[in-house]
């Protein structure tokens, strides 16, 4: 979503990939930016923002002008209420479960692009979770130790919960129904706005 917003608005930026399978999100330099170890993170001037909804709001409010595309309709308009409706619907989906599940069980995906090392790395961490948590040592960054350990324990518990094929099949089926609903609504609005700009109906996540 964030990449789409940057592209649609035509904003220049420097991008750095952070490999989660290679545990780059656990390095001290990244944890100083975001103790939650989550991506994406955007840095603009003195502002560091890690929640993607907040990132989108920030870019929409701070990057404006005649040549900059407005992606979210004016508050109070019908289009704005539609954007919020579907934004909330998509936000309610268990995105972390899709991510963990499809890495742990690539057989559930079609034409999976997930590298085998990603699955092997996560399974290795699950197998050694207790030992690794006991050995974690951040002597060079003591202020990171407690939040790091807390986050790791929660993450391991969450991944174990998502390592369930029946649960994954259930939520992937539900995801398919939600996306079918959105596709049908987009087709309806495409006809309604034929000949006019209608992309704003779904805002940044439809372009």
Question: What this model shows, in words?
Answer:
The protein has 207 residues and is mainly α. The chain has a single domain, classed as Glutaredoxin (3-Layer(aba) Sandwich). Helices cover 57% and strands 3% of the residues. The protein has 9 helices and 2 strands, in the order H-H-E-E-H-H-H-H-H-H-H. The chain has helices at 2-9, 28-33, 52-62, 78-91, 95-104, 116-127, 129-135, 142-162, 165-192; strands at 42-44, 47-49. The chain has a two-stranded antiparallel ribbon with strand order 1-2. Strand 1 (42-44) and strand 2 (47-49) form a beta hairpin. Helix 5 packs across helix 9. The radius of gyration is 20 Å and the shape is globular. Belongs to the GST superfamily. It comes from Phoenicopterus ruber ruber. Pfam families: GST_N_2 (PF13409). Residues 1-67 form the GST N-terminal domain. This is Ganglioside-induced differentiation-associated protein 1-like 1.
- The oligomeric status of these chains comes to single chain
Low-confidence spans: pLDDT under 50, at least 5 residues? 200-207
SSE series: HHEEHHHHHHH
- Please give the number of β-strands: 2
Mind telling me which CATH architecture this is? 3-Layer(aba) Sandwich
Pfam families: GST_N_2
Protein name: Ganglioside-induced differentiation-associated protein 1-like 1
Family: Belongs to the GST superfamily.
């Amino acid at each position: 979503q964030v990449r789409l917003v940057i592209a649609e608005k035509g904003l220049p930026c420097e991008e750095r990939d952070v490999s989660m399978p290679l545990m780059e999100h656990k390095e001290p330099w990244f944890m100083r930016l975001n103790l939650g170890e989550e991506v994406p993170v955007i840095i603009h001037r003195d502002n560091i923002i890690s929640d993607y909804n907040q990132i989108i709001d920030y870019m929409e409010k701070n990057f404006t002008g005649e040549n900059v595309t407005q992606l979210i309709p004016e508050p109070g308009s019908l289009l704005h209420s539609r954007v919020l409706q579907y934004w909330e619907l998509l936000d309610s989906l268990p995105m972390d479960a899709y991510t963990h599940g499809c890495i742990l069980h690539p057989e559930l995906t079609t034409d999976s692009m997930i590298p085998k090392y990603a699955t092997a790395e996560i399974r290795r961490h699950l197998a050694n979770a207790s030992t690794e948590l006991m050995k974690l040592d951040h002597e060079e960054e003591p202020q990171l130790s407690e939040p790091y350990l807390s986050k790791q324990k929660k993450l391991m518990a969450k991944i174990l919960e998502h390592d369930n094929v029946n649960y994954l099949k259930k939520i992937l089926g539900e995801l398919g129904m939600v996306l079918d609903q959105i596709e049908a609504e987009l087709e309806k609005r495409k006809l309604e706005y034929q000949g006019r700009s209608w992309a704003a109906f779904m805002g940044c996540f439809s372009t």
